[in-house]
Amino acid sequence: MLPEIEAVSGDGEVLDVLSALVEQSLVRQSEVEGDPRFRMLVTIREYALVRLAEGGEADEISRRHAAAYLALAEVARPHFGRDDQKRWLAVLELEHDNMRAALEWTIARGHADEALRLVFASRVSATLPRRPTPHTTSGSRTAFR
Q1: How many structural domains comprise the chain?
Q2: Which residues of 50-70 are buried (b: 16+ CB within 10 A; e: fewer)?
Q3: What is the rounded CA–CA span in Å between residue 50 and residue 60?
Q4: Owning domain of residue 62
Q5: d(C-alpha 83, C-alpha 102), whole Å
Q6: What's the pLDDT tens digit per position in 53-82?
Q7: What's the burial of 88, exposed, middle or buried (CB within 10 Å: 0-12/13-18/19+)?
């Protein structure tokens, strides 16, 4: 997640900023398999989006976000069907909301090529067999139909 945050922010030194946001309870931090994860409360996210729009930066940040998650999906794609498939499926599962936001932005802006590449990379992971989770009883994936 950290490389994608750095790509979106355009700054390779985001840890200090993230730490300050965590200390101010504007961002929540957790760990998944030793990797840091950051979540923003919905109200804070909505406020940040308004401020980005007011500053004329929303489209550029959304473009960077879509590019970062397209890159992640395309890095993951060749790993499906290999020994490390499970790890990459888990990565994409954790990034589901970000992948969906990237897809929605590319579609809304008419970036068909990027949208199709994102769908293709994500669709490959969606068609692989999965073990059941608390959200699915049959092991099927419902995010991409």
Answers
A1: 1
A2: eeeeeeeeeeebbbbbbbbbb
A3: 14
A4: 2-127
A5: 27
A6: 999 999 999 999 999 999 999 999 888 888
A7: buried
